[in-house]
Design goal:
The protein is an alpha/beta fold and 283 residues long. It has 9 helices and 11 strands. The chain folds into 2 domains: 126 residues, Udp-n-acetylmuramoylalanyl-d-glutamate--2,6- Diaminopimelate Ligase, Chain: A, domain 1 (3-Layer(aba) Sandwich), CATH 3.40.1390.30; 124 residues, NIF3 (NGG1p interacting factor 3)-like (Udp-n-acetylmuramoylalanyl-d-glutamate--2,6- Diaminopimelate Ligase, Chain: A, domain 1, 3-Layer(aba) Sandwich), CATH 3.40.1390.30. Helices cover 34% and strands 23% of the residues. It binds zinc ion. The site of zinc ion (ZN) has 4 residues, from helix 9.
Length: 283
């Protein structure tokens, strides 16, 4: 059985911490480097129910995409939800490790997993990493569809292939517009509109699209927008990441057992379509 420091070295090789954004907080959060690890749970969010799941599973390590603490803290007292998570994990011998923007930029990265979930062919990164001579790392991915779909069909495909969250999938643009090429970015992608427009793709699939950036993007160009739940766009990475660690474990003969949390940790829990959505505001 490997010890935590062995597994952390493997994770650091898959997602080098130096490739995270300056503002990010990645790597180990808690855990004893000398403790044995035989089960690892992957999840998007380090929230209470995921910590409880790791404990119930007997995991020695929880790997999440989102950081628990993004800024410095002076207390891990259990009177906050984050402190409670830390207590639950440490008391039960579960380490926590975060791979966030370093996993976004990796090859394969978060957006490769999103593209794969939809069966899209990746042609390159949306924002290439200048330090990568292979030209494969970077933020977001540009993709081609094997056969053209209408925007309506493409949004329906995303709704069908991504894990179900209450928000579902919404699209902006002519539903009959033909989609042959798309940009995808797991998580909040509305800071990348300029790069998406420059790429000249037909549609952009991401999450957390806000009114003003989306409205302005629609006014700028005929680019169609497809907005899914943040958690749903990043969850496919958990399966990809677990498979990557499985391969490392096999190479070393570690016998690790990896698991992926299926709990929906998107914060939104219900969705109501307006019954007369096409009629607009009342007169
Ligand atoms: Zn995210």
């Amino acid at each position: 059985m490997p010890v935590l420091s062995d597994v952390i070295n493997a994770l650091d090789t898959l997602w080098p911490r130096a490739r995270a954004e300056d503002w990010d907080a990645v790597g180990p959060v808690c855990g004893d480097p000398g403790a044995g690890v035989d089960r690892v749970l992957f999840a998007v969010d380090p929230v209470r129910e995921v910590a409880d799941e790791a404990v119930a599973l007997g995991a020695g390590l929880l790997v999440t995409h989102h950081p628990l603490y993004l800024r410095g803290t002076t207390s891990v007292a259990a009177d906050t939800f984050k402190g409670r998570v830390v207590h639950t994990l440490i008391r039960n011998g579960v380490a926590l490790y975060v791979a966030h923007t370093n996993a976004d930029r990796a090859d394969p990265g978060v957006s490769d997993a999103l593209a794969a979930a939809l069966g899209l062919r990746v042609t390159g990164p949306l924002v290439p990493d200048p330090d990568d001579p292979s030209g494969r790392r970077g933020l977001g991915r540009l993709c081609a569809l094997d056969r053209p779909l209408s925007l309506r069909e493409f949004a329906a495909l995303a709704a069908e292939r991504l894990p179900a969250a209450a928000q579902g999938v919404r699209a902006a643009g002519d539903p009959d517009r033909t989609v042959r090429t798309v940009a995808v970015c797991g998580g909040s992608g509305d800071s990348l509109f300029a790069e998406v427009r420059a790429a000249g793709v037909d549609a952009y699939l991401t999450a957390d699209l806000r009114h003003h950036p989306a409205s302005e993007a629609r006014e700028h160009s005929p680019l169609a927008l497809v907005d899914a739940a943040h958690w749903a766009t990043e969850w496919p990475w958990c399966e990809q990441a677990a498979a990557q660690l499985d391969a490392v474990s096999e190479r070393h003969g570690w016998g690790l057992r990896t698991h992926v949390s299926r709990r929906v940790t998107d914060p939104w829990t219900t969705h109501h379509t307006a019954p007369r959505a096409s009629e607009g505001a009342p007169n």
